[in-house]
Amino acid sequence: MNKVILMGRLTRDPEVRYTQTSNTLVANFSLAVNRRFVRQGEERQADFINVVAWGKQGEFCSKYFKKGQQVGIIGRIQTRNWDDDKGQKHYVTEVVAEEAYFADSRRDGVSGEASANFENTFGSEVAQNSEFELTPSDDLPF
User: Fold this and answer.
1) What 8-state DSSP symbol labels residue 137?
2) In whole angstroms, what is the distance from residue 47 CA to residue 30 CA?
3) Which phi-psi region, left, alpha or beta, contains residue 27 (left: φ > 0; alpha: ψ -120 to 50)?
4) Strand bridging mode 25-34 / 70-83
5) Sign of CA dihedral 10, 11, 12, 16
6) What pLDDT is attached to residue 60?
7) What pLDDT score was predicted for residue 130?
8) What does the DSSP 8-state code read for residue 78?
């Protein structure tokens, strides 16, 4: 099984291009994903992971995702290689996005248009209650 789940911040706005043969939209961007553990006395480390989104998924990412925004991506790892004009071989490993989500809270950077799209998709009641914060008094089932 080839399945990847990432949550991180965009290092740049998605870059859009179209394929030559079928004119399909392709969006490329990079996520800074924090590592889980921090060594004592050091700053948190991050991995920079390239993501590619095709078609409707790419259109969504290019329209609503902006640099610095926290997003969630579900997809698969893909590797590819090619030879350039000088005969140099290049290798790339990237994540092909199959699902893309906002991970910021509504006030932290989701634009009005994106919020409206979220509300149209999931209903205004869910959108209004999209921030789930626990307080010390909340009972947890675990």
Assistant:
1) T
2) 10
3) beta
4) unpaired
5) negative
6) 96
7) 36
8) E
CATH of 4-104 given 2.40.50.140, 3.40.50.2300, 2.20.25.10, 3.60.15.10 = 2.40.50.140
* Tokens matching residue 46: 């991050």
Query: Kindly report the CA angle at 15 between 10 and 19, in degrees rounded to 5?
Result: 140
Specify the pairing of strand 46-54 against strand 89-102. parallel
Look up residue 5 and give its amino acid.
Answer: I
The residue written with tokens 């989104």 in the block is 53
49 close to 31: Cβ distance less than 8 angstroms:
yes
Nearest to 25 by CA among 81, 95, 97, 90: 97
11-57 per-position pLDDT tens digit: 999 999 999 999 999 999 999 999 988 888 888 899 999 999 999 99
pLDDT band with cut points at 50, 70 and 90 for residue 107:
low
Output the six-digit token pair for 99. Answer: 């699902």
Please tell me whether residue 59 adopts helix, strand or coil conformation. Answer: helix
Mean pLDDT of all residues in 89-95: 96
Alpha-carbon distances of 121 from 10, 39, 84, rounded to whole Å = 23, 41, 43
